[in-house]
Amino acid sequence: MIVRTSDPIYLARVDKWYSVLLTTIQPYLYENGGPIVMVQIENEYGSYFACDYDYLRFLYKKVRFVLGENVVVYTTDGNTDSYLRCGVINESYATVDFGVTYDPAAAFKAQRDYEPKGPLVNSEFYTGWLDHWGHPHSVQSETAVAKSLDLILAYGANVNLFLFEGGTNFGFWNGGDEPPYMTSVTSRDYDAPLNESGDVTPKFYAVRDIVSKYLELPPYPVPPDTLKASYGQTEMMFVSTVQDALSTLCPEGPIFSTYPLAMEDEKIKHYYGYILYRHKLETNIADGELFTKGVRDRGYVMVNQKPMGMLYRDEIIQVKVMGLAGQYLDIFVENQGRVGYGVAMNFMSKGIIYNVTLDGHLLSGWEIYPIHLEYIQKVERSNRFAPEVSISGTLETPSIYKGKINIPNTADQPRDTNLDMRPWVKGQAFINDFNVGRYWPQKGPQVTLYVPAPTMAIPGDNFLFVLELEYSPCSFNTSCSALFTSVPYLNAPPEPDDY
After folding, report:
1. What region holds the Glycoside hydrolase 35 catalytic domain (predicted)?
2. Homologous superfamily of the 252-371 domain (CATH)
């Protein structure tokens, strides 16, 4: 199917979702005593290639059918006529979005071309921007944001600050962009007026000063920032390799297939996170060449759990392998995040999406294990002393580690904190049963992960669980630990490596 079009397969699913979404928000409409006065259909659709007005009208009619005639239905697009041309239908109200500008008349011209009457609305006034792994931290000065906001409000326009408060891509919910393929970091701090943990920043006060020129401020002080904790070092211990924990992480057992299947395949239906593909070698391999262009996105190749190398999308497509007949060739694949923008949205299958060859021979006979990291707490200590290490010494078998967090048993605990995974390399962190997100401090710019206080409990034991994909300090350092600090670090110099 083609998403964001009137493709009937897609519309059937949109219809089902909108029925749930719209009936959920209906009690909160303004006419029902709630705060919702406007409902947006789609988002920046004029930037999408399809230009399918029938699709937009379907969304509009669905909103009207469920929510009635009193709610304002609107669209949002970039502030040029070229974007609005395919993003607007006559039935809904057209708004625009843009960042810092010192010429509001020019910035709103496109909206006025389509809406000669009615309020000027910047529905996404960008206070910052998102970050991608391996790229510089995005910042936007409070001076520029405040000056632009002042001019927009003086022009009589309406503004929605995007973002006003930063957030977090917990779990596997980070997205990505393409081309080139690049994925968002776990933090959604966004350099917003309120940061990722909800604390005020200098940008907040700069924005507040501007708003006070046009609206009366609330008659009470700004609430204080939440208290943060530095819980110090948490000693970590090796628990198990992924392969030794398969009975726990994939309790339903493998799916058998002649050739690899994508994560979204009807037989798999495992849409996020990680998946392991296993093939039993039929002959001895002394210096074989494993080849595939089908890894989405990052695949760790192992034989008998010993790392051979890494595959990455269309960039790293072959790995030298060696092994004995009867040993397992494993490819452990990470879905690093789907692109949510543009044509690429239609080509976001994950896992292994094409066939795999070894020395030119097509490999058939695969066991496929969807990895359920929600069971990471249940993984028991294996008999293995430590992960296997590659010949080059740069990769370990993807493995699980565990540590107990040192939280004082006092009335003011737990508090928000930040997890610093240096010198760990790349992986996934859990606080108890909560998936905090992906860490990759060597890549940057994000180093620490925001850990909200409600993920922990007092009294009671609190644990950090880690799936380390590449290399842990436990293998080369007498101290194997992770640090909990009160200070976030989101602006480290990024590594130049594209992978």
Report:
1. 3-213
2. Galactose-binding domain-like (2.60.120.260)
